[in-house]
Amino acid sequence: xxxxxxxxxxxxxxxxxxxxxxxxxxxxxxxxxxxxxxxxxxxxxxxxxxxxxxxxxxxxxxxxxxxxxxxxxxxxxxxxxxxxxxxxxxxxxxxxxxxxxxxxxxxxxxxxxxxxxxxxxxxxxxxxxxxxxxxxxxxxxxxxxxxxxxxxxxxxxxxxxxxxxxxxxxxxxxxxxxxxxxxxxxxxxxxxxxxxxxxxxxxxxxxxxxxxxxxxxxxxxxxxxxxxxxxxxxxxxxxxxxxxxxxxxxxxxxxxxxxxxxxxxxxxxxxxxxxxxxxxxxxxxxxxxxxxxxxxxxxxxxxxxxxxxxxxxxxxxxxxxxxxxxxxxxxxxxxxxxxxxxxxxxxxxxxxxxxxxxxxxxxxxxxxxxxxxxxxxxxxxxxxxxxxxxxxxxxxxxxxxxxxxxxxxxxxxxxxxxxxxxxxxxxxxxxxxxxxxxxxxxxxxxxxxxxxxxxxxxxxxxxxxxxxxxxxxxxxxxxxxxxxxxxxxxxxxxxxxxxxxxxxxxxxxxxxxxxxxxxxxxxxxxxxxxxxxxxxxxxxxxxxxxx
Length: 547
Ligand SMILES: Nc1ncnc2c1ncn2[C@@H]1O[C@H](COP(=O)(O)OP(=O)(O)OP(=O)(O)O)[C@@H](O)[C@H]1O
Hints:
Layout (H helix, E strand, L loop, with lengths): L2 H15 L3 H54 L2 H6 L2 H19 L1 H23 L1 H7 L3 H38 L1 H6 L3 H53 L5 H43 L21 E8 L10 E8 L4 E5 L6 H8 L7 E6 L2 E2 L5 H6 L15 H6 L10 H10 L3 H5 L18 H30 L4 E4 L3 H5 L3 E6 L2 E6 L1 H6 L4 H20 L1
Parallel strand pairs: 3-6, 3-7
Antiparallel strand pairs: 1-2, 1-4, 4-5, 7-8
Helix pairs in contact: 1-2, 1-10, 2-4, 2-5, 2-10, 4-7, 4-10, 5-6, 5-10, 6-9, 7-9, 7-10, 9-10
């Protein structure tokens, strides 16, 4: 007796044998034994399925996260002007979590539902192909409905994730600038703004819930329709002696089974479509080809590198603001081993010049060369490793001072404690750092904010006490570092500029004046002279305001 039809035969036996208790007991006993076996095997198989799917699913999520993170870091800097931090963080955490859910728990449950439905449908065909064909007429319209529903769900899920990314973006920006928010007392208005964004997410989520409930309602209804059609058509077949009671009752049971599987399948399908929607932006990120190569191009041997820099007819506008050119036919030459101070009014493009040199952006026209070689032919990684940048803003990661210093090395793993102490000595920071209770192991927060309150106070006090000599120490450290290098300084103070070999004054999208600082100061009508006078005036004003 074959298993799928076993139940039907048992029922038929009971039905036809009347009061034959012996046959009835034997049939029921064998049924119980078979079901126990099936449940035990089923339980073990289910546990294995859950574990395997979860474990491999988590592995897929981990791979997805690392691939997305690596794809983000490979993008050119202009990409980050268009895509903001909070949004990208949201893609990395929330979107991957949604995709993760749709391929872990959900996929596991979905596969079970598919297997159950397939088994149920096979049994239906086994018992009565004609009745199964009739009952399953409901499948084509349901499939069309599912496709329409799936598309809608995908798009709404994408919109929900976008709205969530907007909310995260706002939160990230405000939290990372909490000092400014607090200084202006904007906490309440920022909460209102965040609430608006959260409301956008909520209304999309409610729409999704509504459409999902509608779909579940329809699938539930289709299950009931299947049962009704079995009762109707099966009744007719039984009346015409084409079906026995056992066959009809087992067919009905399999129809129930398929109905339950369809409910599971629709839930699986919904989650899968939601995952596809959330994943759309992730696939976009993964497929995006960075506009600049990351680690390709020429590498110069140290002997070939002298360090002469030249900007030839450079025109440039930021990709996000093409209508506002920063440079137009700018020309500038910095001989190897000299110090060039770049000055100019605020917004004249001093930092942009450095960004072009570091190849964070490419000029729209013209070329930039190092020792006569177009920097576009050089390996960008190599290029940046040979340009040391010292920023006005301290850029620190939230780890120990030791790790922050080692970060600058080509291979941080190979850096010894002595290397770190030496680097700190050269930067005149050794004594300052050692004065912290935990010395080089002091953990600094984001942007250099120290984590513990006591250390924070300590650092502020120290910074205050050393502030007077600090400027001198930094200057002295820089001078030591500049030896034998080509240097571009973006400077405002005359004291820094005076030591430069030449000064380039940026104005009106080009180099307006260029020459030795003393010579330029001598020109009473010159822009450099005016800028320095203004600077001196502002400093005096500031000092007076502080008194
Ligand atoms: N990533 C960017 N995307 C779009 N515009 C930018 C970007 N960075 C700077 N700008 C704009 O380019 C112009 C030049 O900026 P840049 O920072 O180079 O000037 P700067 O001379 O260094 O100014 P400051 O002395 O105030 O630091 C400014 O109008 C600035 O708003």
